[in-house]
Q: What sequence folds into this?
């Protein structure tokens, strides 16, 4: 009875993903039909399991989620970005419940290989149990920090990271052959992570596609750096109160992607809270001043802080240029190069420096 109900709900979930335009690849759709999510979320109501939503599976002592089953729509997008083929060798960073690895194993088949690494020993044990309960074979679950990859089975045709990162591990580049794909939720700037599908070309990783996403942060060696936040230091140095400029940005433009694009396309992007209890505001810093778009009444009104003439002019010009073409963040191109490697000169690109990689972002 429960299995029959699960099949029906799984079918409804797949129909939702297909009708919304998210699930388009026949092989990935077949994997969703063959692999049922409830096997990887034991003890939960089927109505909850088969919602198109992320489901936390472990929390720390403060109640913060440390592991989850990702939203099926995001899983489908990333698996399609991965461009899986039968017989491929795949490395997954972040096993979670094992559901994603099971989907991958279904696509690559018995001639392929799936290795999934999980830093949390309890989570890795549960993933093995879930895979066994679902009757999935061909998946190796290892308790390990994903920063080192898995040299014992390298190289891999595909690598997928199922937690957000603000840098890439050198091991991931080294364990991919030329033409191999790496998909990771990348957080460079702005309020949105971008699931970025990179293709290896020599010592460079070049983006092939990007899509918006949201993941828990990766833990271990590749965890987000906890160095001083430039937004916090900027907030502390703001010359309060701000001065109104009587210029505004429509909220619909922010919903349409302006802030995400601004963070990746303009130097000096900043996002902060004027007070801890206030909602985040964003803008640009230039020289000794900051221009911020602050929500008031029916819009986002630009306020100037300090010597902000240049910052205000750049923010309004950036919005005007964006409004003319309305480019999507997904249209940006990202090239990742090992830190210190000479980057090709391009006056229109923005460079984000990280400990291991430099990320070169250019507009279409």
A:
């Amino acid at each position: 009875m429960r299995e029959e109900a699960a099949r029906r709900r799984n079918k409804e979930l797949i129909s939702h993903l297909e009708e919304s335009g998210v699930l388009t690849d026949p092989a990935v759709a077949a994997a969703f039909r063959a692999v049922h999510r409830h096997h990887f979320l034991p003890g939960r109501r089927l109505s909850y399991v088969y919602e198109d939503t992320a489901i936390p599976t472990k929390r720390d002592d403060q109640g913060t989620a440390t592991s989850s089953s990702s939203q099926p729509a995001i899983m489908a997008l990333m698996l399609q970005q991965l461009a899986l083929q039968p017989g491929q060798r795949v490395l997954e960073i972040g096993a979670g419940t094992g559901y994603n690895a099971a989907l991958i194993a279904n696509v690559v088949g018995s001639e392929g290989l799936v290795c999934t690494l999980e830093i949390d020993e309890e989570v890795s044990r549960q993933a093995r149990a879930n895979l066994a309960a679902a009757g999935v074979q061909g998946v190796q679950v290892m308790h390990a920090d994903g920063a080192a990859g898995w040299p014992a089975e390298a190289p891999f045709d595909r690598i997928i990271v199922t937690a957000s990162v603000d840098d890439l591990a050198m091991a991931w580049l080294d364990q991919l052959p030329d033409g191999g794909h790496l998909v990771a939720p990348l957080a460079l700037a702005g309020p949105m992570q971008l699931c970025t599908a990179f293709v290896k070309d020599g010592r460079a990783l070049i983006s092939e596609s990007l899509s918006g996403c949201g993941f828990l942060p990766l833990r271990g060696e590749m965890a987000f750096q906890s160095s001083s936040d430039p937004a916090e230091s900027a907030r502390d140095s703001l010359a309060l109160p701000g001065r109104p400029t009587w210029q505004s940005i429509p909220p619909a433009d922010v919903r349409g992607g302006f802030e995400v694009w601004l963070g990746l396309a303009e130097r000096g992007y900043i996002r902060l809270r004027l007070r801890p209890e206030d909602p985040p505001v964003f803008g640009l810093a230039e020289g000794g001043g900051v221009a911020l778009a602050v929500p008031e009444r029916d819009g986002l009104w630009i306020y100037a802080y300090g010597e902000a003439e240049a910052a205000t002019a750049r923010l309004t010009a950036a919005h005007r240029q964006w409004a003319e073409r309305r480019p999507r963040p997904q249209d940006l191109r990202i090239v990742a190069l090992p830190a210190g490697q000479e980057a090709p000169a391009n006056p229109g690109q923005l460079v984000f420096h990280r400990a291991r990689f430099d990320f070169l972002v250019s507009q279409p």
About this structure: The CA atoms of residues 258 and 322 lie 7 Å apart.
